[in-house]
């Protein structure tokens, strides 16, 4: 639950729909989304403009620099657009070190234009940053000195006076149009709980603002207030993040519960595996393994908070399966760690883990697993005793530490003799 | 045309400068003391009890919770203050609570993420409230921003959202901060030390209280600002506040990757606004291990631009003059060295150690840990609702549905504690159907109708009908079973049985009908007998009843075996013939009156029907006509 980027298609869909509702601006933009499951004949029936206008096609995958990467096709007819997409759909590309397949495209009318304006709104702790430039487009970074910004405190309305410094250099007629457009976009931004909007560029078509490229980010925490306004909205994973089946399973589990369950697979062949309670502590354990020079041996990032015994069992199963998947005779370690809990009943949380350990007895032995436990908090003595006992029962080396030990001390123990 | 594309525009330096400057608008210095009292929104027994336990071991004279706000409820909540029980007033609105407790200036909000913002805003608007702590995780950013803006312009402090709270050692504790009493004692939080601590993570704050207690004289105050992108108050807000508290001699900060909050602390350090040592560590150096953008445990902990990385923040803090260790593992030593230097410089006043009083252990936790035992007051053997789903006699409710069980099977589980064969449970169901109603004129239905017409509710109408069931109404099945069983088991001939009853002046139960005759048998009886003959392994009691009927019919044509007699005798066959009951069990079942239970259950269906019928027909109060009463002396 946090800020989530949305696709350009959705950003534009929300902008168009709610500009109309909130400030009666009717944006003449059209866009169509294409994925693997798109039936082009059906699409053409639904969006007749596709066959009537020249088109622009680009991937809609939350990554930038599409123009510079040669992934934008201009001035095509529909057949050309389809051909461009079919050639690239599912193809793996690399953008700034992240590899992944292209799965989603956006098609829009090709708009020949001269002006390229830049507009960005971002939500800050005490208000909003609104930036505008007459020199938007592909070279925005080079032209950053031409970007004007204002800071609008939380409760202040976006008045003409507030906007004035942004559009001072524009001819008054155009300035007025663009100022109105900004006010509209800002109204949508606030009403729909956006945390970031950027249009780079937008232009003028028949004297009216027309966004060509758009990025948006919503506050997912506000989903409960926006169910109707957001409509059927997808929060795609960052580009290059392809979920393994295990990761999808845990993500699914996480979405269905009030508990927090996070699992990221880093290196399937890694020899150090994490099962850490708490958002803060999980980060620090992961840091520590890296600080000790064993980053490459780290199998996963995991964080859990407030799981039921059943949920804990499922998470632990996944981690144990991964940790024991590639036995090679060498020592492998599982860190069952966490800070001194405020409320969590440590004994009860460990019950789920213990059930998973018992299920995987032979796999654990075969993979030469060593288990290191460190936890404090309610009922921790019971929890540690149970862990010790299950180690003895299964014949697996288990070391347990309580609050008297340094939290990350077990990282050192895990690495020793590896 | 050109299609503009670029990566996220990084920070605007103006913005974090602004936030550090404005930080001065927040309350400076002390927020809490040993007399601070809070209002607690949304009643939660455990966190409040933990606060009161903390108060007790700190030797506070007044409990730190003055009142509870539980929307829609009023009255008192009983809680312990040490050994004693106290009653804390419960109010239904924030306004009422503030009016009743004008000296309570902290508002602890345990509302859900959906409603936390609205209740926090109304609390901030109360003149008596200075500090609002919001526990919920998942409050929308735009709502938090409204709270921040209001708090800043009204000189109030918001702690959270998404936090466990904070603590002033020996004085005041928010909610669940610092966990169990054992941990609080371990971390010496019952008396003030010299260290001010602030972190994002609530869990890690608890860990750090421990660490700090190990290598210094302990915490003076600790605050977890919460893991959100926009916390109500920031790391630097609290560091600047700590800087103004004379008892605090050094500060410890645990930051996290993501966001730019640490930079306002950097600015404050650079501007010389902090003149006490600050030991700081920003966690999340591991983010570079992840190829694509990662959302870690906290909403604010997101790998993003270089400036928001842990490495960059640690570097900036170090350059601004904070003590920054090389890793989290070295954090403890850095705190230790900084503290020892202060001791050497004579800046630390030695803490007077006190022995905190013992909190009487709760009965429940003592039982859980095996220290004491307590007798139970109730025993139950038929059902259990403690597991994943309720079980009837060990059978989970889901498998009852999945296996297509009927009401008869449920009765078999709950009444007889075993799964009887389907022919038995089907027979039970037939009995229930046959006994469900017998028209409006019988005493049960009559009572129910009169009660329903008096405007009483469903339960009153139902029970007034049920209350008529007894020796004269509906009791015949049980009696029939008892007498038939006794006679058959003793080997009495029908003649001996009927005549011995006659001698005792008892009518043979289960024999006789108002309308039915020997040549016009009761169809229901015939159906029951047919079912039993087809399905039961043995029908010896029923055959005996038929022999009795043959004898009684020879005396009078209306002395037929009626439905009560048929059910009573066939139930004996069910119990004896199924082979699933011992003789003692059968005797007990008949003795306790299970068959009466069958009648009560069945007839409830009819009585409920009569109640609904009268209500649907809007029948007025029933009054018995004078004409129908014989008035006499």
TrEMBL record, chain A:
Enzyme class at the top of the EC tree: transferase
Protein known as: ATP citrate synthase
Catalytic activity of the protein: oxaloacetate + acetyl-CoA + ADP + phosphate = citrate + ATP + CoA
Subcellular location: Cytoplasm, Cytosol
Oligomer and partners: Heterooctamer of 4 alpha and 4 beta chains.
Naturally occurring in which organism (per UniProt): Hibiscus sabdariffa (roselle)
Start and end residues of each ATP-citrate synthase citrate-binding domain: 241-416
Keyword flag Metal-binding: no
From TrEMBL, chain B:
UniProt keyword terms in alphabetical order: ATP-binding, Cytoplasm, Lipid biosynthesis, Lipid metabolism, Magnesium, Metal-binding, Nucleotide-binding, Transferase
EC number: 2.3.3.8
Location of this chain's protein in the cell: Cytoplasm
InterPro entries cross-referenced by the UniProt entry: Cit_synth/succinyl-CoA_lig_AS (IPR017440), Citrate_synth-like_lrg_a-sub (IPR016142), Citrate_synth-like_sm_a-sub (IPR016143), Citrate_synthase (IPR002020), Citrate_synthase_sf (IPR036969), Citrt_syn/SCS-alpha_CS (IPR033847), NAD(P)-bd_dom_sf (IPR036291), Succ-CoA_synthase_bsu_CS (IPR017866)
SUPFAM superfamilies from the UniProt entry: Citrate synthase, NAD(P)-binding Rossmann-fold domains
Cited Pfam families: Citrate_synt, Ligase_CoA
Superkingdom as given in the UniProt entry: Eukaryota
Name of the top EC class for this enzyme: transferase
Span of domain ATP-citrate synthase/succinyl-CoA ligase C-terminal: 198-323
Quaternary structure (record): Heterooctamer of 4 alpha and 4 beta chains.
Protein name (database record): ATP citrate synthase
Species whose genome carries this gene: Hibiscus sabdariffa
